[in-house]
Write a structure and sequence with these properties.
This protein has 342 residues and is an alpha/beta fold. 38% of the residues lie in helices and 22% in strands. The chain folds into two domains: 99 residues, no CATH class; 211 residues, von Willebrand factor, type A domain (Rossmann fold, 3-Layer(aba) Sandwich), CATH 3.40.50. It is elongated.
């Protein structure tokens, strides 16, 4: 068994507190009654009130409240598989995670801003399958094509430079994206890549890969991140007081946006190039560009989940409340004894 909203289980800790309140209320009633008659005489005066029935009613209420909290937590068990029929494109996001993406010409940094914009981009999608590829000197698939945007968001938040080979290999990123489409058997007019990078690639083989992608029917939209002027690259962990990356001669290494390759990639693939300035990232413009594309039905996608079982606990709580309402606090009346009080 699992709980879809486990935070409501904290409400169970209020049950002992409620029990204390009921006990304090009972003690207060006793004290108020003692003002008019002694406690030893109280059972003879109020012969029809049953302390045991009152205890049972209180217990029923406490259990009913506990079942309500469990119902709110949405207990689930038993797997279910649903066929999800949606229309949309197949999008592969290619995100540069090279060291130069730590530059702060786009605040707070190129990479952090890119992650934030992709997150907002994902929230605007409906029915489009999304894959995520991280690249530097090499490429790695983080998320295959999926409708589960939550998984993409989770992997996106963990993107940092350092775990891939240094450099910026745009060709490797494009070919890795093409493999995703090929494995999903969706390469064609419904396939789009969005490549986000500062474009600092040493070789020019990315344009060749982009032509091959175009021949497979894949459009590539590129977003150039950074300024055209050189800026220093901050170090993730400063050593010996040095804040910026330096070469072997001790000079500060700078990075600048190289637009030419990114523009050629977009041009040969039938996509478009956008420059992400500090004020506007341009990713939403890509969304506007592809909004009118013909959508593909993803009828074969399946979503696994669990059956909700909160109805059981909700019914139990309602039953206990009903029993408590029907149960009287008054027991069977005793026969009156001779005299005023026996």
């Amino acid at each position: 068994m699992r709980f879809a909203e486990p935070v409501f289980l904290w409400g169970l800790f209020s049950i002992p507190f409620l029990a204390c309140l009921f006990w304090l209320a009972y003690r207060r009633r006793q004290k108020l009654a003692a003002r008019f008659v002694s406690l030893s005489m109280l059972p003879k005066v109020a012969t029809s009130l049953s302390p045991w029935r009152r205890l049972i009613k209180t217990t029923l209420i406490l259990f009913a409240v506990a079942f309500l909290f469990v119902a709110l937590a949405r207990p689930q068990w038993g797997m279910k598989v649903e066929h999800v029929e949606r229309k949309g494109l197949d999008l592969v996001l290619l995100q540069d995670v090279s060291l130069s993406m730590l530059a702060e010409d786009v605040k707070p940094s190129r990479l952090v801003r890119s992650r934030h914009e992709i997150s907002a981009f994902l929230s605007s999608l409906t029915g489009d399958r999304v894959g995520l590829v991280a690249f530097a000197g090499e490429s790695r698939v983080l998320v295959p094509l999926t409708l589960d945007y939550g998984t993409v968001q989770m992997m996106l938040s963990e993107l940092e430079p350092g775990y891939l080979l240094p450099g910026t290999n745009l060709e490797s990123a494009i070919r890795e994206g093409m493999k995703l489409f090929k494995s999903a058997k969706t390469a064609g007019k419904f396939s789009v890549m969005v490549l986000m990078s500062d474009g600092e690639e040493l070789e020019n083989s990315a344009v060749v890969a982009a032509k091959e992608a175009s021949e497979a029917g894949i459009k590539i939209y590129t977003i150039g991140i950074g300024s055209l002027e050189g800026v220093p690259i901050p170090l993730q962990s400063a050593k010996d007081g040095e804040r910026y990356k330096k070469d072997r001669q001790g000079n500060i290494v700078t990075t600048r946006l190289e637009e030419r390759t990114l523009q050629e990639i977009a041009a040969v693939s039938g996509g478009a190039y956008f420059h992400a300035s500090p004020g506007e990232f341009q990713l939403q413009k890509v969304l506007t560009e592809i909004a009118n594309f013909e959508k593909k039905e993803h009828a074969s996608d399946q979503a696994e989940g669990y059956h909700d079982r909160y109805q059981i606990f909700l019914a139990m709580a309602a039953l206990l409340f009903l029993i408590e309402a029907l149960l009287s606090e008054r027991g069977r009346k005793r026969k009156a004894l001779n005299g005023r009080f026996s």
